[in-house]
Amino acid sequence: MSYLIKGAALPSGRRADIRIAGGALAEVGGPLTAGPGEAVVDAEGLVALPGLVDIHTHLREPGREDAETVLSGSRAAAAGGYTCVHAMANTNPVADTAGVVEQVWRLGRAAGYVDVRPVGAVSVGLQGLHLAELAAMARSAAQVRVFSDDGQCVWDPVLMRRALEYVKGFGAVVAQHAQEPRLTEGAQMHEGVVSSQVGLAGWPAVAEESIIARDVLLAEHVGSRLHVCHVSTAGSVEIIRWAKARRIDVTAEVTPHHLLLTDERARTYNPVFKVNPPLRSSDDAEAVRAALADGTLDVVGTDHAPHPREAKDCEWAAAAFGMTGLETALPIVHQLMVETGRMTWQDVAAAMSARPALIGRVADQGRPLAAGEPANLTLFDPSARWTVEPERLQTASGNTPVAGWELRGRTVATFWAGRATVLEGEVV
pTM of this prediction? Predict the structure, then answer.
């Protein structure tokens, strides 16, 4: 189907009409006139962004369909303005073989809402003992280019070195969940004043920072690409800034919840705020906001981590780690970073589309909004106000940390490969 989007504001601020035809952006400029049978989308007051790309999503299928499926997660992604997501490997069975990553890839194609790019496990069964079949996953139909044991740290420096060496051959990247396991045994939340006051076992910042320091040195030694997942501390930011100054090939992400929330939320003992890595101090939250604004942290990754109700409807210590985030990420970034003047829409397009596509080596995503480019596009209304009601979200799980909050800004339309997946704020 052909669409004519009228009067959208491009990331540069320039207003333009956009014609989508044949899966591509046929024309960008204007004013343009609708052709016969062409659907017209009124984009007055809307911002047009390249389709968002999430470098860090948990879709749970296969094995944990009680929390999420590729279909429900894909619908949630489209509702949030995403046209591509990278599905993490901690499924059951683990995505550590060509067969499993191809299964996830085919489920994504069948769902038809976003480009689902499977992430392959670094180690067999996420156990950190032996390398998984990295080359077979890279050469499979899924063409895996991101490998991660996320949920677990690749704690063995020898195995991490071998993984970094191995993936160089096919231009892939190792995405590390930075968590020194011995320093976080039994940990429940950020180690600090709040943890001592509420009586929950602390999770020290150094557990994250020590692994990042080790891995950037390994990446420099090997000459390979490293991506650091969900950076959460001021110290981590400084290590990554130092590594980039040395021209080490490292990229890093921050989640919406680490931008927005702090460890003060643990005072409620509400397990929805239990996450890995934990919500940190206000100083840490300010540090990651500043680092996203200045480009030290390259991308926003949602770490969308759905769980069934019983995994969160329990006491804090027994609860699962993780929060959902695909449908609320862009409004949170808009509210914290754009409305405050810390980022422009061009910066948002880079951090939530172009750079994650580059990290994941997804050639047809994150492209500029120009004639001849693939028609992966999001229309966002920065003036919209909406209250987050978990039961009305597209994700199959309700563990959002912003339940009941009024957010500013909402996705109005999403187009993937020229096809509307969201129109007038509703998933098609």
Answer: 0.97
